[in-house]
Amino acid sequence: MLTDQRKKAILEALARDGQVLAGELSARFGVSEDTVRRDLRELAAQGRVQRVHGGALPASAAIAPLAEREDMDVDAKRRVARKAASMIEPGQVVIVDGGTTSALLVQCLAPDLVATVVTHSPSIAVALAAHPAVEVVLIGGKLYKHSVVSVGAAAVEAMSHVHADLYFMGVTGVHAKAGLSTGDYEEAYVKRALAARAAETVVLACASKLNAASQYRIGDLDLAQTLIVDAAAPARLIRPIEEAGLAVVKA
């Protein structure tokens, strides 16, 4: 089997099964594991797979710069954002992550909503500055420019003083076995810290983030209680997540 044929078969297996193992691929293709690992390295360099110990997972497409991500899956993100906004009750303290779906979420808040939004995203805070009844708490720290959010020790320390009702988490990957992931080490740490400060964590994701993984693991799926996803997402992507125990709400 030629290299291109092996790579195509690997991608097809990832789309079907959600993961591949180098040993199984070696036996299937009749080549050495070193050859399979080389194929996986090349696919990873192209951003098409996420390598893990022993094999690979589908790579998330949601790791592009913020300006590019703003134009991706806009309608699906808006539906997810609208459903998330409807979950907020008057008087609640809500943590809102950075990201493009979160930016749409705050646009969906009712103008008469009385609540407190805690965020480590300067752009989310600015978007809420004109809201007449939402109090905004902005968490500072080192600015991670890719996602325009605060990260680092100062941000984590500030979060330790928050007790929130809800945390709306943005991710780049939701995978039944690999869990929740993102593209930056410090951002993953901050997301874990935020989840620990909320009574309920709600993950916001469009279909492109399902059955996918990024370089840095935030935690297992049970770090969250709910996943909001666009209703148009294929059932084959949603089913493994539900079977893993995460409640899925379709928007």
TrEMBL record:
Gene3D superfamilies for this protein: 3.40.50.1360, Winged helix-like DNA-binding domain superfamily/Winged helix DNA-binding domain (1.10.10.10)
InterPro entries in alphabetical order: Carb_Metab_HTH_regulators (IPR050313), DeoR-like_C (IPR014036), DeoR_HTH (IPR001034), NagB/RpiA_transferase-like (IPR037171), Tscrpt_reg_HTH_DeoR_CS (IPR018356), WH-like_DNA-bd_sf (IPR036388), WH_DNA-bd_sf (IPR036390)
Lineage: Bacteria, Pseudomonadati, Pseudomonadota, Betaproteobacteria, Burkholderiales
Protein name stated in the entry: DeoR/GlpR transcriptional regulator
GO molecular function: DNA binding; DNA-binding transcription factor activity
Pfam families with a match to the protein in the record: DeoRC, HTH_DeoR
Keywords: DNA-binding, Repressor, Transcription, Transcription regulation
Xref: SMART domains: DeoRC, HTH_DEOR
HTH deoR-type domain segment(s): 3-58
Source organism (scientific name): Paraburkholderia pallida
